[in-house]
Amino acid sequence: MDTLTTSLTQEAVQRFSSIRALTERICAPLEPEDTVVQPMADVSPPKWHMAHSSWFFEAFVLQPYLPGYKVFHPRYSFLFNSYYNTVGSRVQRDKRGTLTRPPLRDIYAYRQHVTAHVQKLLQSITGDKAAQMLPILELGLQHEQQHQELLLTDIKYILSTNPLLPVYKPQSYQPENKDAGKAGFLEVPGGRYTIGYQGAGFSFDNELGVHDVLVEDFSIMNRLVTNGEYLEFMQDGGYNNFRHWLDEGLALVRAQGLEAPLYWVKQDEVWHRFTMHGLEKVNLNDPVCHLSFYEADAFANWAGKCLLTEFEWEAAAQVYPPQKGNFVETDLLEPVAADPAQEGLQQLYGDVWEWTYSAYHPYPGFTKAPGAIGEYNGKFMLNQMVLRGGSCATSQSHIRTTYRNFFHPDKRWQYTGIRLAQK
């Protein structure tokens, strides 16, 4: 094995082992019963996430690249394939909660089996095969990091539907309760900006191809919108004033009786919210989150501002490069207030995903990879909106300024929030 391949595979072994272990640490606080629940179609049971992320490595790394590999169970591809039509039929997404079997102990055995065999493969693969396999392995690692974030947000939703409102994890430490201060706006000069991923490292195909866009002068809010600011919108009748809303959003508000962000509940005339640490009073200085695109846009209209486009967001990140963020590594698992003493642009990374006013469409020259891998992003490029920046449930090594997350505009269970612009 040549020196370069040896160093690459050793690094891959360490990274693979670390990421696989994090998935199991995320699930460690759960009771076995918690891992089967699916209270809505968007949420997958934690047991399914653990199995699916293992199936991905089995299907796309072990079967093609480890000679003589035999699958752990012949029916697991049907149970744990997510949306890859190339691979074959599967359990429908809204039926994943019916999978009481295989039992949780078998899922952990499956994970151990797949992990051990990938480690064996990395110790033995060489030459051209290693060069072909390592990009697929990296895709699998990035894929597992996506599912770690989904695990956390799905666990939060699952626990929130339990009348006991169980605590996922006590706070590891209490963040300083700072006044977020009055919001300011920072100027971003108009001009030509290069958008999309450039470099030799990993990116998803939806971050390619690189292209230039023309951006007009605008200014960007120096921090995220807070709970207190959103509460002013609520108290001003924001949910009832049709003038702020897109028609689809207003229909959603009326059909579901929405009057506050997801997880907010009023007790004794005081707003509380369900968090990963249990039910807490709403901290007015923390970033507001668990909002749909429609709510974010309505708030912007009420405030006399607007949401950024994804290109404006990326341009702002080039002018004011993000330095740090509240990611999963902080173990806070909830967004925290900005620091009023800090200058510049805050919270561009971490805390909450920021809705943009950009539809999720392909960049110029976008091409799908052949086979099942080509189904990863491209077939979802319709009827969804782009979000940027990561959240408190995102791994720090997973995010980039070019990273394009996407959800349908009605979704609220992710850590999604608001940053305003003015033009």
What keywords describe this structure?
9 helices; 2 domains; four-stranded antiparallel sheet; Four Helix Bundle (Hemerythrin (Met), subunit A); alpha+beta; paralog of FGE (formylglycine-generating enzyme); 423 residues
Task: Write the SSE topology.
Elements: H1 3-27, H2 46-65, H3 76-80, H4 104-124, H5 127-160, E1 185-188, E2 191-195, E3 211-215, E4 218-221, H6 227-235, H7 247-256, E5 264-267, E6 270-275, E7 278-281, H8 293-303, E8 306-307, H9 310-319, E9 325-326, E10 349-350, E11 353-359, E12 385-388, E13 405-407, E14 416-417, E15 420-422
Parallel strand pairs: 9-10, 11-14
Antiparallel strand pairs: 1-4, 2-3, 4-15, 5-6, 6-7, 8-15, 11-12, 12-13
Helix pairs in contact: 1-4, 1-5, 2-4, 2-5
What's this model, at a glance?
The chain is α+β, with helices and mostly antiparallel strands and 423 residues long. It is 34% helix and 13% strand.
Helices and strands, in order, run as HHHHHEEEEHHEEEHEHEEEEEEE
- Distance from N terminus to C terminus (CA atoms, Å) equals 57 Å
**CATH A-level architecture of the largest domain:** Alpha-Beta Complex
The CATH superfamily label of the largest domain reads paralog of FGE (formylglycine-generating enzyme)
* CATH structural fold name of the largest domain: paralog of FGE (formylglycine-generating enzyme)
Describe the structure.
The chain is an alpha+beta fold and 423 residues long. It has helices at residues 3-27, 46-65, 76-80, 104-124, 127-160, 227-235, 247-256, 293-303, 310-319, and strands at 185-188, 191-195, 211-215, 218-221, 264-267, 270-275, 278-281, 306-307, 325-326, 349-350, 353-359, 385-388, 405-407, 416-417, 420-422. Strands 1-4-15-8 form a 4-stranded antiparallel sheet, sandwiched between helices. A 4-stranded mixed sheet has the order 13-12-11-14. A hairpin with a 2-residue loop joins strand 6 (270-275) and strand 7 (278-281).
